[in-house]
Amino acid sequence: MAEPATDLTLDSASLLAAEEHEVSIVGRSPWYLAWRRLRRNWVALVSLGVFVLICVACALAPVYARHLAHTGPNAVHAGESVIVSGKRTPVIGGGSHYDPKTNTFVVAAPSYLGPTWWHAHGRFVLGTDNLGRDVAVRLLYGGRNSLKVGLGSALVCTLVAVLLALLAGYNGGWVDWLISRFFDLIWAFPVFLLAIALSTALAINGEVVWGVQWLTIELIHDGRRRAIGLKAHNGPSPRAAARQETHRAPSRCRRPRPPAAP
């Protein structure tokens, strides 16, 4: 007796959902899945909030400097005084003065204005440096410049990396070989020595140069992998296909031999 045929058809998504949870299966985008994982991690959310707060504060540095601190990042207030909690306090104290009782000059160590914590109507919130400059204003402007450098360098690296990656992964051939050997040379060169050499040549911070170089290499290799995957999915380009047809060796077909006579 013949066995009944086995049904190998796959169940639909609605049927599986009805059997398991009685809830319809809905496709989610990668952005939604990433946001769902992020909102479950409270530490990551708090860190994201702090980062956004820092970015907003640095972006509003000119507003704070003009309307609250009434000074600039490079303004020197060495000989000025400020009212802190109703008492006039010099920005930089100490120095030398004449004592008529002893008929001598007394030299005192310089004292710098410490953090006022909003007791000076927004001026010198974090105190002053050794030149009498507002530390809070300089801190916000420094963060603003750091954000400009970081975002600008990341944008330039992304654009250059994507262009080179698409060029190497899609065309292939000698273009891919040339770009690959170039970045293999960068990988073979010691990273820290290259960062020191670039920082010395460009007269900027070596850590920033190393970070930009590492980001560029990672983006280029990731872009090459994505471009190669795109090429494998869509097939070779028309130019590459024509090149393959041109250089393909002609196949030799042989006629089948007739069967031997009995």
Q: Can you describe this structure?
A:
The structure is a single chain. A hairpin with a 2-residue loop joins strand 1 and strand 2. The strands form two sheets. Strands 1-2 form a two-stranded antiparallel ribbon. A two-stranded antiparallel ribbon has the order 3-4. Helix 4 (61-69) packs antiparallel against helix 5 (135-171). It has three domains: 29-59; 76-133, no CATH class; 140-237, no CATH class. It has nine helices and four strands, in the order ααααββββααααα. It is 57% helix and 10% strand. Mean pLDDT is 75; it is low at 204-210. The two termini are 44 Å apart. It has 262 residues and is mostly helical. The protein has helices at 13-20, 30-39, 42-59, 61-69, 135-171, 173-188, 191-202, 206-234, 238-247, and strands at 81-84, 87-90, 92-99, 104-112.
